[in-house]
Design brief:
single chain, 236 residues, mainly alpha, disordered C terminus
């Protein structure tokens, strides 16, 4: 592998690292800015929302940016890991990019909530309690979409971490940690799809995932990857 190829790979590695870290940081903002569930539980949710629509839109916009960054991350990881195994890297790209697309669908659901609570003239055909019920329904739908998203995300994450493992680009323990934590996302998503009212405690299994993504992001930015100069190009 030539020096120019190594430099190019390191550039994409930094892009992947920055986006990994930014995604985790940005993911914490929407819930801090706006508590939609609490608003919808209030009897006068439609009236209360009128003065908070701007804040709600900011939270949605931040979440949208997060999924755009997931697209960038998917692309950067594909470029970095393609020389290890082209077909597996493509599989990882499909699933992680699919995660981003599902995230955009989830945002469409939550934008629908905004429409129901907007107080537009055409909504006067509905009673306030009906609009509130519809808004809560789409909130539930938004939550369910995340179970599907996490399942898809977990598969892509396992594939990418496996490629990191066999390539030796990053320490083995970090790759193994990633495969384990993304596997818990797959399991969490599947259980919530397959089981009605799955135990809420299962969500605690997701906590190491956020820490892993922040850790690998910082590692890729500041440590980079160990590239074997004799490593072969893409394996079919």
């Amino acid at each position: 592998m030539t020096n120019s190829m190594v430099n190019m790979k390191n550039n994409y590695t930094k892009i992947a690292g920055v986006t990994y870290a930014l995604i985790i940081i940005i993911a914490t903002f929407p819930s801090m800015i706006f508590d939609l569930s609490s608003l919808l539980k209030a009897k006068d949710a439609v009236e209360n929302f009128a003065g908070q629509e701007g804040v709600f839109r900011i939270a949605i916009a931040i979440e949208f940016i997060m999924f755009v960054l997931v697209m960038v991350l998917s692309w950067a990881l594909y470029v970095v890991l393609k020389p290890v195994n082209k077909n597996l890297a493509l599989l990882g790209l499909i699933f992680r990019f699919g995660e981003a697309l599902l995230g955009c669908v989830a945002i469409m659901f939550i934008l629908t909530i905004l429409m129901f609570l907007s107080g537009a003239e055409y909504l006067q055909a509905f009673e306030p309690n009906q609009l509130q019920a519809l808004a809560r329904f789409f909130t539930k739908l938004y939550g369910v979409s995340y179970y599907i998203l996490l399942f898809i995300m977990g598969i892509g994450g396992v594939v990418y971490c496996y490629l990191f493992y066999i390539s030796g680009y990053i320490p083995k323990f970090l790759s193994i940690w990633g495969m384990i934590t993304y596997s818990t996302m797959v399991l969490y998503g599947f259980v919530n799809i397959a089981v009605h009212n799955a135990p809420s405690e299962l969500a605690y299994a997701m906590a190491p995932g956020a820490l892993f993504e922040l850790t690998i992001g910082l590692w890729l930015v500041f440590k980079g990857i160990s590239v074997n100069q004799n490593q072969e190009t893409a394996t079919d």
